[in-house]
Amino acid sequence: MSEAYITRIAKFLPNQSVSNEEMEEYLGFINGKPSKSKAIVLRNNGIKNRYYALTKDGVATHTNAEMAALAVKGLFKSRPEDIKKIDLLSCATSSPDQLMPSHGVMVHGYLPETSSVEVVSPSGVCCAGMHAFKYAYMSVKIGDKKKAVSCASERLSPVLRSEQFEDEIQQLIKLEQNPYIAFDKDFLRWMLSDGAGAFLVENAPNKEGISLKIEWIEGCSYANEEEACMYMGADKLEDGTLKSYKDFTLEAVLEKSIFSIKQDVKLLGEKIVKLGFSKLKNILHDKGVSMDDVTYFLPHLSSYFFEKKIDDFFTENGIPIPKEKWYTNLVSVGNVGAASIYMMLEEVFNSGALKKGEKILLAVPESSRFSYMFCLLTVC
């Protein structure tokens, strides 16, 4: 089999960054009043800035597919002619612009410079970006493709606007006592961000500069054991099953805000760290990898609230990672869902700090029904 390498990484962030103080100017006020829980939620998640593909009036400035295409074009900024050589486009998102056609072909539609290539659209939430990456990696690995692009993008700001929500839940005492209770619809308003990232995966490293050899990508799902935790376009019933938007009347869809994002906060607190990172411990053991071998650890965090919990888990399980090895840009770009891991790796890759032989461990937990993806890269 061929080897596979990430040779270029690019990102696209729409418009200017939005500070914590400006958020409600873009997302609006529920019932015309400022949020009373916003400050508490932001204190827990630690985010200072994020990006929205809309104006303060709620007018879209970019589609999801357009942002993904702009990230892809960014891969070829120095050599525009190379975009014609792409032989695979693997595109992921949890927030497509439409149900049909697929997100991937819509991205391809914004790339008239390319040829008629294979296009795939992995679905999911945060792990979807890694699934798109793995498809590109495997296609190059088996020799089927030579120049594969994977990308991930999100445009969730329209569903975070105030008109999409029911009356805001005001439970400040509970929020202070138990931060998990904030991880509901209101929490998600202050966390999510828009943007896109892209990888170029090839069968040979760059002749000049660095590349990232893809050592392995491993994933797992606990959906056979756990009910849904985060969902959209459905309502959660008392027995834990989801009732699809297709099975509601139009009136009920609006009344129950079926298309807002919701989270089962109790499940999130109990499960998100221990399930996935127990699996990572087993993967590292099976692959013969020690945390001592890792130079950079890039975890996708929905909130800095989970940073200590992950750190504590590693320490308690005998696989500690010193904090100086951790890297995340959550504070400056927010949670961009499936695209977050692309944006973190882009900053590290283009920082000028990487040295050949260093290893980078990626970790992407997804709370929707408890899925996880992990990847080890070597700088070469």
Automatic annotation (TrEMBL):
InterPro entries: ACP_syn_III_C, Thiolase-like
Pfam families in the record: ACP_syn_III_C
Keyword tags: Acyltransferase, Transferase
Domain (Beta-ketoacyl-[acyl-carrier-protein] synthase III C-terminal): residue spans on this chain: 284-363
Single annotated GO MF: acyltransferase activity
GO biological process: secondary metabolite biosynthetic process
Thylakoid is among the record's keywords: no
SUPFAM superfamilies recorded: Thiolase-like
NCBIfam families (alphabetical): PRK06816.1
Protein name: Beta-ketoacyl-[acyl-carrier-protein] synthase III C-terminal domain-containing protein
Organism: Dyadobacter helix
